[in-house]
Amino acid sequence: MGYPDQRFDVNLSILFTELPLLERPAAAAAAGFTAVELWWPWIETPTPPQAELDALKKALDDAGTQLVGLNFYAGQLPGPDRGALSVPGTESERFRANIEVAADFAASVGCTALNALYGNRVEGADPQVQDALALENLVLAARAADRVGAILLVETLNKPESPLYPLVSAPAAIEVVDKVNAATGLGNAKFLLDLYHLSMNGEDLSQVIKAYAAKTGHVQIADNPGRGAPGTGSLPLEQLLDELKNAGYAGRVGLEYKPGDRPSAESFDWLPASARAAR
Asked: Which residues have a catalytic role annotated?
């Protein structure tokens, strides 16, 4: 058990960001990783030119890296936004325009997990109206994901850093997952269990794992406090990942931490080189 027994991937939207997007897959490969994930890379547009999608696919292929997770369009992220799908008006429309683009790109690179960030509460908008819109859009996203053989992920964030985001507990995200699956009958909506966000919310992580491992489609980690690499804070991450494995979770663990003041490539000393390649 322990870290060498896990299946890790590197989030290229928070690590290796000192490099241009198209150079990050090769940098991850040079550090020993063969699986990567990404937030939606084109924050200005849900529908980038095909040439840019092709260039990213080529960069992934040339590096020998497998994209294992991709966010749908989520607004300004990094930035003030936390998704677009529950935001009435233009942002919701942009999310819808992105659904098939993201699903088709995922299919082209063999990516089987698509993350749909819920979006912030909007001043003056009725929360019930936002939630109805969210369910509508998540159903569309789940069907598109299913078309390409992927799962749809719904993520809990943390209230201190995302005060306007409504899904700030594991049960809140699980409720949305269950509603989407009930609406589609597909069963491909899953929980994205991020140990850093859940710990920031003060949740009992072992209890969450026990309760929801079976509904979890992807896991992400960073230490707390600080959102740094494992060992920089006080979370017992190695133990928690073992608990997940013992509870039946056999999926990937995304490294979604900040490298701190050093280059990203130097932030992996906690993980033996032999344990970095995808299995």
From this structure: 155, 256
pTM: 0.98
Q: Which of 20, 88, 11 is nearest to 253 (CA)?
A: 11
CA distance 36 to 130: 32
Residue 238 binned pLDDT confidence (cut-offs 50, 70, 90): very high
Tell the burial category of 95 from Cβ atoms under 10 Å away from its Cβ (0-12, 13-18, 19+): buried
Per-residue pLDDT tens over the stretch 91-140: 999 999 999 999 999 999 999 999 999 999 999 999 999 999 999 999 99
Average pLDDT over residues 226-248: 98
pLDDT value at position 5?
94
